[in-house]
């Protein structure tokens, strides 16, 4: 039913929603769909509930993204409320679009989920598979299921390839599958410039970002007994170093680069937020998805997750350290 309606001759109003602070997979998947639906002659808008990192501004179609603000509120409301379909991309919890959540819930549009995170909420149509390493794989499958792989051009392929690269750690994370390589090969056949993509994804260290990273690394604490590393960012840090969305991307992985460390945590005291944002990364069998869900109202993947704390930064860290001993065996025997 969905495929026939979207593949049909009647023009539809479609809105595409990635999660807050969209990463490479969320943006790549969303932009790929934007171009794809435009090829089908639909009226399509891509709306981001927050700003996105300037390191992705080179992506095809990025200038067409509508970023929610007080200035664009009426436009965003109009687009979402009057849409026929809303596509939820790379998230399955409405807290990930908190600024426009109420607008989304007021829309009577059919809601379609395309996402690879576990424990999805129910929507009208679901393209959900937590075993794949990137949502861009599911977008490729979605286009394939509509028998429209021939409509994937260089722009669409570039966006999907960025999604594959960023969510697989440049094709090196253990979540990699043979399907991922197969799809990457199909995208390469569309004439994408791999060197251009790689260089743009690597060129993300402006002066202020490096200074902020230096501050974060100075605060890095290592607890060898629990094979854990953690650090933090305070509001004063991001004010001093002219923080922009996306500037902290990749900071958390430095802890995992330390010998014998399997658990890395970053506490982030965001501007104008009443809570502390926390990122979790792990190696091997230590499940940070379960850890985040149990203790920090979060979730994500087995080795990459996030959560929040309503406590102050210092109290959040203190609480984290108090529960860490409960995971001694899990951490010591993680491989």
Rg, please?
20 Å
The amount of beta strand, in percent, is 15-25%
What's the pLDDT, averaged over the residues? 92
Biggest pleated-sheet summary = 6 strands, parallel
The DSSP helix count reads: 14
Q: What is the fold-level CATH name, i.e. the topology of the largest domain? A: inorganic pyrophosphatase (n-terminal core)
Give a count of the beta strands, DSSP E runs of length 2 or more: 12
Overall spatial form: globular
Gross CATH architecture of the largest domain: Alpha-Beta Complex
Quick one: CATH superfamily of the largest domain? Answer: inorganic pyrophosphatase (n-terminal core)
Q: Estimate nothing, just give the exact number of structural domains.
A: 2
The percent range for helix content is 25-40%
Distance between the termini: 45 Å
Q: Unreliable segments (pLDDT under 50, ≥5 consecutive)? A: none
CATH class of the largest domain: Alpha Beta
Summed up, what is this model?
The chain is an alpha/beta fold. Helices cover 38% and strands 18% of the residues.
What can you tell me about this protein's structure?
This protein has 335 residues and is of the alpha/beta class. The protein has 2 domains: 2-202, Alpha-Beta Complex (inorganic pyrophosphatase (n-terminal core)), CATH 3.90.1640.10; 207-332, Diaminopimelate Epimerase, Chain A, domain 1 (Roll), CATH 3.10.310.30. The chain is built from 14 helices and 12 strands. The protein has helices at residues 2-7, 24-39, 73-81, 101-106, 135-145, 154-167, 178-188, 194-202, 207-218, 235-240, 253-256, 288-295, 313-323, 328-332, and strands at residues 13-18, 43-48, 66-67, 85-89, 110-115, 125-128, 221-223, 228-233, 263-269, 276-282, 299-300, 304-309. Strands 3-2-1-4-5-6 form a 6-stranded parallel sheet, sandwiched between helices. Strand 1 (13-18), helix 2 (24-39) and strand 2 (43-48) form a beta-alpha-beta unit. Helix 2 runs parallel beside helix 5. The relative contact order is 0.10.
């Amino acid at each position: 039913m969905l495929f026939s309606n979207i593949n049909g001759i009647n023009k539809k109003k479609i809105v595409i929603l990635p999660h807050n602070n969209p990463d490479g997979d969320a943006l790549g998947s969303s932009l790929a769909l934007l171009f794809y639906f435009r090829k089908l002659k639909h009226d399509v808008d891509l709306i981001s509930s927050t700003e996105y990192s300037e390191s992705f501004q080179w992506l095809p179609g990025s200038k067409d993204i509508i970023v929610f603000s007080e200035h664009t509120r009426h436009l965003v409301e109009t687009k979402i409320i009057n849409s026929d379909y809303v596509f939820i991309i790379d998230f399955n919890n409405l807290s990930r679009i908190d600024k426009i959540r109420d607008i989304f819930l007021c829309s009577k549009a059919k809601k379609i989920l395309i996402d690879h995170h576990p424990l999805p909420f129910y929507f009208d149509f679901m393209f959900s598979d937590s075993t794949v390493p990137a949502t861009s794989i599911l977008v490729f499958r979605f286009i394939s299921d509509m028998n429209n792989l021939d409509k994937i051009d260089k722009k669409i392929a570039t966006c999907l390839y960025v999604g594959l690269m960023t969510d697989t750690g440049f094709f090196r994370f253990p979540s990699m599958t043979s399907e991922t390589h197969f799809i990457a090969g199909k995208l390469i056949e569309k004439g994408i410039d791999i060197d251009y993509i790689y260089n743009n994804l690597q060129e993300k260290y402006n002066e202020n970002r490096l200074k902020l990273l230096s501050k974060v690394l100075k605060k890095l604490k290592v607890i060898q007994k629990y094979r854990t590393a953690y650090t933090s960012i305070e509001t004063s840090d991001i004010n001093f170093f002219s923080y922009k969305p996306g500037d902290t991307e990749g900071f958390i992985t430095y802890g995992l680069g330390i010998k014998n460390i399997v658990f890395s945590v970053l506490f982030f005291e965001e501007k104008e937020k009443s809570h502390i944002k926390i990122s979790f990364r792990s190696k091997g069998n230590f499940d940070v998805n379960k850890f985040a869900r149990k203790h920090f109202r979060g979730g994500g993947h087995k080795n990459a997750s996030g959560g929040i704390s309503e406590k102050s930064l210092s109290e959040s860290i203190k609480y984290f350290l108090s529960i860490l001993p409960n995971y001694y065996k899990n951490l010591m025997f993680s491989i």
